[in-house]
Design brief:
Blueprint (H helix, E strand, L loop, with lengths): L18 H9 L23 H16 L3 H7 L6 H6 L4 E8 L8 E7 L4 E5 L6 H7 L3 E4 L6 H9 L8 E4 H7 L6 H7 L13 H14 L2 H28 L4 H5 L6 H6 L7 H7 L15 H22 L1
Parallel strand pairs: 1-4, 4-5
Antiparallel strand pairs: 1-2, 2-3
Helix pairs in contact: 9-10
Length: about 325
């Protein structure tokens, strides 16, 4: 590893700088933004006309780096260099994953898992799902896998707001692809020799939908526990993937900070429950009758829904002030 931070070596988002020009900067000894002189070096005459714009970009990026404005970099870095944000913002990164009811049209969010490397936060439908928005307000960087196409749009739909958080966002799916790792998260974990706890090694998204249905219909606690463990495992594994990617690019600090067993916290906070027949029988015992649901087509339901959306939009606007 060299003596520079990762972000200040990102040049592909600068004007007139592509991979070829980047190599020419390196050949001239210009490794980071701090190395760029005010005047264009004589060996880089090809960039003489663009040098004023390059210097303006240098000043703007150094200011954003000083302010740790991760949103600035998340929205500007070239896709081939977005991994660099992970290195600089590692201690503020929160890894996020959701599970849904599985319905193809307007799926409901059932579980949200957030893992910051120290604390695991779980938000569950019909329990504390609404608390997620308050939590998200304090996050500076969310890291997901395919979150740009799935998690974030579904969350915006769930909460009826344009943005779930002012946080920057990195989608690790595309960073993995740039590093040579294809397919889904579980496949990439296997490629990187990440082994999940025994009870979760065969669990997938389809089973997660079934586990939620089983919890809702039969109140089988083991089904709820396994669903939470599965969602949490996605975020913990995602952090390990992110750390290994940084190591691959020459920045091993994140890997060194991880515990030898990344599942220790999960197994302590949410130990697996045996899914035995006795427990199922207890869970299947008749429960108190639930209050009758308001028919979706009713006028009252529509008014309540509109009031709920209005309240969430007001909350969003207050956060933006």
């Amino acid at each position: 590893m060299n003596g520079y931070d990762a972000l200040s070596q990102a040049f592909l988002h600068f004007p007139q700088i592509g991979p070829k020009r980047r190599q020419e900067l390196l050949a001239a000894g210009l490794v980071s933004w701090q190395d760029l002189p005010e005047e264009c070096p004589p060996q880089l005459t090809c960039l003489r006309r663009a040098w004023a714009g390059i210097n303006a970009a240098r000043r703007e990026n150094l200011q954003a780096l000083t302010e740790q404005d991760w949103q600035y970099f998340a929205s500007r870095l070239d896709g081939r260099e977005r991994w660099r944000l992970l290195v600089n913002a590692w201690e503020e990164a929160v890894f996020l994953d959701i599970e849904t009811s599985g319905l193809s049209f307007q799926p409901e969010v059932t579980v949200i898992s957030c893992w910051d490397g120290q604390e695991l936060r779980l938000f569950v439908r019909n329990e504390n799902l609404e608390d997620f928005l308050d939590y998200a307000d304090g996050v500076r960087l969310f890291v997901t896998f395919n979150g740009a196409q799935f998690d974030l749009p579904v969350l915006r739909q769930e909460f009826h707001i344009p943005e779930i958080s002012p946080a920057a966002h990195l989608d690790l799916r595309w960073i993995c692809r740039q590093a040579g790792y294809q397919h889904g998260l579980k496949s990439i974990e296997r490629q990187l020799s990440i082994l999940r706890p025994a009870d979760l090694q065969e669990t997938n998204g389809e089973e997660a939908v079934y586990l939620w249905q089983r919890w809702q219909r039969e109140r089988v606690e083991a089904a709820r526990r396994k669903l939470l463990r599965y969602c949490a495992a996605d975020t913990i594994a995602l952090q390990k993937v992110a750390a290994l990617l940084q190591q691959q690019y020459g920045f091993p600090q994140a890997v060194r900070m991880l515990p030898p067993d990344i599942w220790t916290g999960l197994n302590q906070q949410l130990p697996a429950l045996p899914d035995d027949s006795a427990q199922e029988a207890r869970a299947a015992a008749p429960a108190a009758p639930a209050a009758p649901a308001v028919p979706p087509e009713s006028f009252l339901h529509t008014i309540n829904g509109l009031e709920d959306i209005q309240a969430r939009l007001q909350r969003f606007l207050q956060r933006k002030k």
